């Protein structure tokens, strides 16, 4: 099977054997894939019943190469077998040199040999728990391990279960804006590389650029080497993800040098073998973040995002904006109690500076399943280049306005910012004279563009799609048709409009001769 991403008329498509599709994903917790038993007990019995077609699963360097040069792929074998049995595609996440700004997944022989595999050093000359991106030996060792993994997958009869791969996870260095190790200092004092001079022609030295730019160059250079190794064996899209830049925070509070919005130009220039730089979105400003990551010529992947009830509806906005992958993190939590999850994740949430509510799955499961069911039904339209898709989402605003040739629409947001209610979000498109809206918690008002005309609903239905065939479940009329709306449970509605003159028209009647004599 061939997996590829194409750009057609400034719109990206993920193709499986030339057929466009969307990846309805879920990412398991960091340690969920550490044993086959853990996956068998906690993941596989659950995930194939909630609408996923793709599972994001970590692969740990420390697990596959605990002894230098000796590889054990038993766990990868188990993941491939189970994915095939459950008819789910895999996105493997390579937890190699860097994960969340740290080097905690490297093998013991890397961790304990700080002479050969030296670490990032802060301004106080203290070594940090992050292998330096200027350490060529470490990068070469990571490349060898990643290459061996990709070779194993490429020669496996179930290799087609793997549709993409993420290289590292939220790279960068924490607790310092840049690396002050001896090697880093040597490069910091050297001539600017040609690629950086092309981006910043006014600069003559690293000292004239930000520390974050320097680290972005180093990390992107390392990941480009890794991506090239992976591509020797696997012809699939490769990407890396980002712990986001936060306003008011300094580089080092979040991983300095990762693919954040302020250095995306460096990553795009220096790591061309990566298909995308993907934002992990846990923040409120979802629309702004998507816009930031669509400023460059790349597809939109969201490999990590919230799973709390209020934000499940974000998927409508994301796929409406062209996302190819959407994946709430810790997907197995949808079946657990809230208290257990919050207790497990307290340290993680504190480290990342995340809202505790982002990991609260209370009541999420039926709504999550419904959201993915609707996106699956709409996939033939969302991936049709002839159909214009529009999407909206409540943030600080309360309405969304849209106008076509004949009608104006005012979409009023109904959600009340309560944790037990989905936030307003949706998408819509038009097929001939019919409008299709999907999402939740909004009401539709309409009028005619022509000021001399009134608009009214001609037909209003609820239903679903089988392929591209609309199946009507209910035809609405009477007081259920005055104002089209969707409540808290997501659904699809279809309606058409018509117009009539505001003022009574003078009609000239022609009577038959015998009628005039009545």
Please, could you describe this protein's structure?
The protein has 518 residues and is an alpha/beta fold. It has two domains: 3-382, Glycosidases (TIM Barrel); 390-501, putative beta-Galactosidase from caulobacter crescentus (Chondroitinase Ac, Chain A, domain 3, Sandwich), CATH 2.60.220. The chain is 28% helix and 28% strand. The chain has helices at 36-42, 44-47, 61-64, 74-85, 108-111, 136-154, 182-188, 194-199, 211-231, 264-270, 286-293, 314-320, 338-352, 364-382, 513-516, and strands at residues 3-8, 11-16, 19-21, 23-27, 54-60, 89-99, 119-121, 127-131, 162-169, 238-242, 276-279, 300-305, 323-328, 390-393, 399-403, 407-413, 425-431, 434-440, 442-448, 453-466, 469-475, 485-486, 491-501. The strands form five sheets. An eight-stranded parallel sheet has the order 11-10-9-6-5-4-13-12. Strand 1 (3-8) and strand 2 (11-16) form a beta hairpin. Helix 6 packs parallel to helix 9 (211-231) and helix 12 packs parallel to helix 14 (364-382). It is globular and about 100 Å long. The mean pLDDT is 94. InterPro entries: DUF5597, GH.
Give the gist of this structure.
This is DUF5597 domain-containing protein. With 518 residues, the chain is an alpha/beta fold. 28% of the residues lie in helices and 28% in strands.
Note the topology.
Blueprint: E1 3-8, E2 11-16, E3 19-21, E4 23-27, H1 36-42, H2 44-47, E5 54-60, H3 61-64, H4 74-85, E6 89-99, H5 108-111, E7 119-121, E8 127-131, H6 136-154, E9 162-169, H7 182-188, H8 194-199, H9 211-231, E10 238-242, H10 264-270, E11 276-279, H11 286-293, E12 300-305, H12 314-320, E13 323-328, H13 338-352, H14 364-382, E14 390-393, E15 399-403, E16 407-413, E17 425-431, E18 434-440, E19 442-448, E20 453-466, E21 469-475, E22 485-486, E23 491-501, H15 513-516
Helix pairs in contact: 6-9, 12-14
